[in-house]
From TrEMBL:
Protein name: Phosphatidylglycerophosphatase A
A GO MF term: phosphatidylglycerophosphatase activity
Gene Ontology biological process: lipid metabolic process
NAD listed as a keyword: no
Pfam families for this protein: PgpA
Domain (YutG/PgpA) ranges: 5-142
PANTHER family registered for this protein in UniProt: PHOSPHATIDYLGLYCEROPHOSPHATASE A
Positions of transmembrane segments: 12-32, 39-59, 79-102, 123-146
Keywords annotated in UniProt: Membrane, Transmembrane, Transmembrane helix
UniProt xrefs under InterPro entries: PgpA, PgpA-like_sf, YutG/PgpA
Amino acid sequence: MFKAISSVAGIGYLKGGGTVAAAACCLGLYLARFSGITVHLLPAGLLTVGLLALGTFAAQQVEPAWGKDSYRVVIDEVAGMWVSMLFVPITSTSLLAGLVLFRFFDITKPLYISRMEQLPGGVGVMMDDVLAGVYANLLLQAGLYFKLF
């Protein structure tokens, strides 16, 4: 069960699994938004905490078998992408911008993101992506403020 959660139903086994998982998160957010599902402040916060807790626990459970921060663990990319889009209106433009920004920060790991990987176990696996998501979200919020999209 933890392997399925950590790999997001097997996405982690694909080449480029991190990007595929982040894109799958975008697709899920897009489909939810345009099917009429709205998530308000409190539920969004609770969903975020739940996703982070589940991802941290699942990554911790698979670490003995897969090793530290295995490429197969992509639940962290889903969580990071979710954080990137938290409280951002879901449009195709904002999702594309969020995906590009999140993957940029996640891959290049500037501004203390790489230090988060040094945290122990599942926390280290998740927190670098969460911080990448925070930076992406801040830039998206600035883009919204300045009406760039």
